Structures
1.
Amino acid sequence: MSKSSFHLTEQNQSIESRIVVALERISEAYRVLLWNESKEYSLSPIQIQILIFVSFHSREKCRVGYLANEFNMTKATISDSVKVLLSKELVQKETDPIDTRSYFISLTAEGQQIAKKASFFASSIKQPIEKLSEEQKLIMLNGLLKLIYDLNKSGIITIQRMCFACTNYQAENGIHYCALLDKKLAESEIRVDCPEFESKS
Ligand code: SF4
């Protein structure tokens, strides 16, 4: 049986294990930064994530079911968070005209204000990335996109609105192409969260 990536001897002999541990460290940084942001508004981290998500995504994605898939949580957990946001008047319900039992959520003016500020919670992670060379950034982006795609395929993370999982994406001889935008995509243009994404499945 292979050793855990967290086993120090294994880790120091394997670049893959060191990458796994490095990603774990970075996920910890996200957790701490989000936690600090949520404390400022007396909200939970997931409530802050909902506000940020709603602020940047189209109305049809702002439903409890979609949010549950997005954040890999149960509908009941998201529903509880939405109830708190409603009670604090940070979001409001909009009835779906096609199905009146269903609703979208949108931000109130105060919710928008908080989302705008909180959406910068990861700035301390962006700053060191800005110091990398363009080549380093491209290698990093590429590796991360492939990792996310594989994690999505194996069912560990759910919704991904990225080019590799999109029906409009084509690749030939290392050239990336978007049929919807009708243009070649440079490596640096491959999207992680595309508003025009259409799932292959
Ligand atoms: S529609 Fe968006 S996600 Fe799909 S291939 Fe084009 S750019 Fe990528």
2.
Amino acid sequence: MTQPRAVVAGYAIVSMDDRINDASGNMPEALRNEGDWRRFQAELDRAQLVVLGRLGHEAHSNPRERRRVVVSSSAMSLEQRDGTWWWNPAGLAWGAVAAALLPSGGRVAVPGGRGVFDLFLSIGFDEFHLTRATGARLGAGHFVFSACAGGASAESLLTSAGLAPSPVELIDAAAGVTSTVWRRTSGALTEK
Ligand SMILES: NC(=O)c1ccc[n+]([C@@H]2O[C@H](COP(=O)([O-])OP(=O)(O)OC[C@H]3O[C@@H](n4cnc5c(N)ncnc54)[C@H](OP(=O)(O)O)[C@@H]3O)[C@@H](O)[C@H]2O)c1
């Protein structure tokens, strides 16, 4: 019987030059937007699993006790520490993680950062919710995907990864913040 599939959705708010943070390694005010935050929180609420990088995990407490998987090279493969799952992709494939933690399938929210976005760009996103702060150009900081450093836009990388955009939605006209949901067009993925 085929394993029910986990649907993987990425979430990022990026500047016009595809950055997710600034030169200091922090999220600047220009990338903070109340409307985007509310939508993001609602998306996390409807996910059965949240997969994020270690720094993001350490920076953001988990008051709603969402089920987290922390990506870290410090994990052996998949292990539990204090009620949180820790995963090292070098030790266990995503398909095995999904089968172990979501045996009946479900939604997986991926809020980054860059290393985790890179990881799932190669595994395969089913959706990517790309929010743009159209007034922000940071000039430094992490790109949303490492390959943006070579000049590729986030949109071109999502297209190459088999996703297509829905119409752009204006979520905050005063702040110039838009959102585009990219969805897989090339059929169901097999778990990697
Ligand atoms: N604008 C946005 O939408 C957005 C989204 C996310 C984050 N951010 C911002 O970006 C910054 C944090 O992001 P970040 O990229 O620096 O950190 P991060 O992704 O939260 O954490 C990085 C850590 O995650 C682990 N990791 C990531 N990919 C891995 C892989 N493939 N294999 C093994 N371990 C892996 C490593 O942990 P170990 O060192 O333990 O191996 C790495 O040091 C913050 O400023 C945050 O606010 C912005």
